[in-house]
Design brief:
about 240 residues; alpha/beta; Rossmann fold; 9 helices; elongated
Amino acid sequence: MGYSQYRPEYPVDLFRYLATLTANQECVWDCASGTGQAARGLAPYFDTVIATDASDEQVANAYGPDNVEFAVANATASGLTAGTVDLVVVAQALHWFDLQKFYSEVKRVLKNKGVIAVWCYSLHRISPQIDVIIDDLYTNIVGSYWPPERRLVESGYRDLDFPFEGIVSPQFEMQAQWSLQQLTGYLETWSATQRYIAHKGESPVPDITDRLLGVWDPPDKKRTVNWPLACRVGVLHH
């Protein structure tokens, strides 16, 4: 139960596309890897995936195939050898970084014409009748509990400094087939929901579940849930 159980998977097409952008597919650095979700997606396309995270606990719970190497490291001090990385990726985490220090580290470890790809996702979409209820939870009920950095996610990282030669990437989205129970489990994992619970001593999700029951019939029916990905991709020229 919990965070990892209710995280949607990144699309295979995204990782396949990223592997086409680099001259070699020897080494990729997955920064702020968490438990390795993106690292596992990258593993079939690169010889070695270095997956780092600042959290000991996340790395302790991370897993992947044999060519994924997990390590505890800060985004600004990867421990990687200079000029050895073909691709750097950051999935749903760039908004937490000290950008200037991170970009300095990226420029240090990337090969000439190496690639950086960062992406994020915000609100999912299911249907107009369901979306309006979720939007109410997101904006009006737990809205004040989102951290300020959430605004950067909502803008699809468009407002972030990105000092690399930009590449226009295709549109990607995550997709899942979920029952109502799976959706509400996911809503419980929102950081804003958790802050709401810590402040008020109760979860707002049961009331939302009651409202969703009126438009999700039967509750165990699987519905398609879509999360559009916002990607920024760039090339480094030394």
